[in-house]
Amino acid sequence: MASPSASAGQRPSPLSEDVVVAHQKRAAAMAAAEMVTDGMKVGLGTGSTVAYLLPALGERKLRDVSCVATSPATERAARELGLEVRRLDELGELDLAVDGADQIDPMGWLIKGGGGAHTREKIVAAAARRFVVIASAEKAVDELAPPVPLELVHFGVQSTLRALAHARLRAPSDPEAPASAPSQQSPDGGLIADYFGPVGDPRELSARLSGTPGVVEHGLFAPEMVSLILIAGEEGVERRAGGKPGD
Ligand code: 5RP
């Protein structure tokens, strides 16, 4: 739409890419919020797309909804919006979990963990009967590309990195992190790293990463973990079925 100040013959200034992406993230998040109903137990992912889900959920004023948060940031934001947050072990099986993704390929494989929360995110996704992914259009890619986020145990981390090859620790994002901190850390004390080697067949890479001693979890999510992918683009919200059966 032309800006009100654009006069005849002038090109309207295009919306900045950031504004378009933010709009798409919100649209995908709103579509997922509509899937939550009274009494549900809901897993909340982490990241800027999920940040649009939380107020959308809060505004729905649903009754008896209990949530599990995959990161301290999500937990704080959810509580501030009046959502009830409990521990996963208190809730057991979840009805639904909703989360963002860094990349989505045409087969439904995901790369997650841009925020270093992929271990908790995978546990919560697996604990949910339905796992719904929300994303803006630029997250849909023809082929997954590195980096693939990793969580590693402290002990022998240099040996683990050598065994993985092409992997390195991720610098702390917190400017107040002590200089001695070797990398960004997960809320469970693991070291966050990234694998920069080729992805190739994601199933093979997934097996190799999982089979490397010292790797707690990696950010490749297989299609069979995902029930539904909501990708918001210019034409609205595209719904891609995942491989996880669900009601
Ligand atoms: C965090 C994640 C996020 O879901 C992923 O990084 C996408 O983030 P955003 O919604 O900010 O683009 O996996 O660990």
Structure description:
- The chain has 247 residues and is of the alpha/beta class.
- Helix content is 27%, strand content 24%.
- The chain has seven helices and 14 strands.
- It has a seven-stranded mixed sheet with strand order 3-2-1-4-7-13-14. Strands 9-10-8-11 form a four-stranded antiparallel sheet. A three-stranded antiparallel sheet has the order 5-6-12, with no helix packed on it.
- α1 packs across α2 (50-59).
- It is globular, with a radius of gyration of 19 Å.
- Ribulose-5-phosphate is lined by residues 45-49, 99-102, 112-118, 121.
- Residues 45-49, 99-102, 112-118, 121 line the site of ribulose-5-phosphate.
Sequence-ordered SSE layout with sheet pairings:
Elements: H1 17-33, E1 41-44, H2 50-59, E2 66-69, H3 72-80, E3 84-85, H4 88-91, E4 94-99, E5 103-104, E6 110-111, H5 118-127, E7 128-136, E8 148-152, H6 157-164, E9 167-169, E10 191-195, H7 202-210, E11 215-218, E12 220-221, E13 228-233, E14 236-241
Parallel strand pairs: 1-2, 1-4, 2-3, 4-7, 7-13
Antiparallel strand pairs: 5-6, 6-12, 8-10, 8-11, 9-10, 13-14
Helix pairs in contact: 1-2
Bound molecules: ribulose-5-phosphate.
